[in-house]
Write a structure and sequence with these properties.
Helix 5 links the parallel strand 5 and strand 6. Helix 1 runs parallel beside helix 2 and helix 3 crosses helix 4 (89-97). The protein is of the alpha/beta class. The longest helix is centred in the first third of the chain and has 17 residues, at 137-153. The protein is globular, with a radius of gyration of 24 Å. The strands form two sheets. The chain has a 17-stranded mixed beta sheet, with helices on both faces. The chain has 15 helices and 19 strands.
């Protein structure tokens, strides 16, 4: 349900009377607005809006809620937090004097708003995410100073930090400042910033998770950053277990980080050579969680044998599944984005249903798999309707799902997406044991939430 204008304001106004029960608030474009209860019966409030100037709709009412939400754990404003914070002073004042206890995420901030957030202090271990909206260069200096002050105020309370488009002066490659130490930050995410590995390690020596989604390339720093990692002869983060970055960054950092367990490669691997280089870099690591994006050729099968399809710069499923199984024998959770040269659901299914999938039999620890085809959104609805009218397509889907559970005896959960390409209209399955049949089992549909819970269990919390 979506509310706009006076309807949205009226609904928020009603929530002011029970604001003390709210634990989480999330404001985002394209979501829905309305209260709902989480499994722990603590109120969750999600608000949607359209356009950048959202102040006239509900900013004063949101301020009323925040002023009374004295048990608030999480606040996320994604995106365009600046119009809310800069046009309604009470919101900024409340965030500074009584910030959420667990998480604060503010997207697309301008320098004056960051300046106003300088006194921000968390009372409990907290996660902070700030996005500076690619602000103009003349405002960068004051924004960097503001970020530095915020971090200094929370040196003993921050355990997760995400910075986009702005970092403190002491993290910049040319800075002469000695970085201070934030010893309790365990998770760090950087996006579109400039820095160097040694400065990161000096400021954040105890990282458990590092995500570098993109580095600003205006001065050629991306290549320099990876080269600096490659040339490093020491372990920068002795406790680092989780890494999210490009294949080049993963390969460079893995050289002296033998304790890595979770890998998320953000760019697309397009060739056997690219896959080989990644496998060599990680072959001595006990990787338990893996996320990859791969460009695949459509195979064809003749008399039970699978042959590689055509396509320059992409490689066959046969080669990919074999390399994957050989390089990551300990993987427990696996998420794969499989790009192909077609929008045909049947052709895409051939990538995951051919004889070469049998190579995955050796993955004895694998519990959770997610297979995603980046199917063009503009075609999803139409092709989804066509698929649901085809009995052959439904049989192919059922056979493919069964194949994965039969091939990998340890597999408990499987997701295939997007939903529109599936004739059965369902994405999530699990193995259900049948004790009276010995090793027998059946494949049953499950809700999305159960599959996501399983993925989180095997990926981020218990696989290390």
């Amino acid at each position: 349900m979506s509310y706009e204008g006076s309807s949205l304001a009226a609904t928020l106004n009603k929530w002011t009377t029970s604001a003390s029960t709210i634990r989480q608030i999330r404001i985002t474009r394209g979501a829905f607005f309305g209260p709902r209860l989480t499994e722990t019966s603590k109120a969750f409030l999600e608000i949607a809006y359209s356009g950048q100037d959202i102040r006239p709709h509900f900013a004063p009412y949101l301020a009323d809620v925040l002023e009374k939400a004295n048990s608030l754990l999480d606040l996320e404003i994604i995106p365009w937090a600046d119009p809310l914070l800069s046009n309604e002073p009470r919101i900024l004042r409340t965030l500074v004097t009584n910030p959420p206890a667990r998480k604060l995420q503010l997207e697309f901030l301008r320098a004056p708003t960051l300046e106003a957030l300088r006194p921000l202090r968390f009372s409990f271990p907290a996660s902070l995410s700030l996005n500076a909206n690619s602000m103009v260069s003349e405002l960068q200096f004051s924004a960097r100073e503001a970020i530095a002050d915020i971090l200094a105020n929370n040196v003993n309370s921050l355990y997760e930090l995400s910075l986009t488009w702005v970092v403190p002066e002491y993290l910049l490659p040319w800075s002469k400042e000695t970085p201070p130490t934030l010893p309790f930050v365990r998770g760090l995410q950087l996006n579109m910033v400039m820095t160097t590995p040694d400065r990161l390690a000096s400021a954040f020596p105890n990282l458990y998770h590092l995500s570098v989604r993109a580095l600003y390339e205006g001065q050629g720093l991306q290549g320099d950053f990876n080269a600096l990692f490659m040339n490093t002869e020491t372990t920068l983060w002795p406790e680092l277990k989780s890494l999210h970055g490009t294949a080049a960054l993963v390969q460079a950092l893995a050289k002296h980080q033998p304790q890595l367990r979770q890998i998320h490669v953000s760019d697309v691997i397009t060739s056997n050579l690219g896959m080989d280089e990644l496998c060599v870099a990680l072959r001595d690591h006990l990787i338990t969680s893996l996320r990859l994006a791969v460009s695949m050729a459509i195979p064809y099968v003749d008399e039970g044998r699978e042959y590689a399809g055509n396509g320059e710069g992409i490689f066959s499923p046969g080669a990919f599944w074999t390399k994957l199984a050989n390089a990551f024998p300990h993987v427990r959770s696996m998420t794969l984005h499989l790009s192909t040269m077609t929008s045909s659901p049947d052709c895409n299914f051939r990538v995951i249903s051919g004889p070469s999938v049998q190579a995955l039999t050796s993955l004895r620890a694998l519990r959770s798999v997610s297979l995603f085809f980046p199917f063009p959104a503009i075609h999803r609805r139409a092709l989804g309707m066509i698929r649901r009218t085809s009995p052959e397509s439904l049989q192919l889907e059922q056979n493919t799902i069964r194949l994965w559970f039969e091939t990998i005896p340890s597999l408990e959960y499987l997701e295939v997406a997007p939903q529109e390409m599936l004739p059965g209209g369902h994405c999530w399955w699990k193995r259900q044991r049948v004790p009276e049949e010995g090793n027998g089992f059946r494949v049953v549909r499950i809700p999305k939430e159960e599959c996501l819970d399983a993925e989180e269990e095997y990926t981020w919390s218990r696989c290390i």
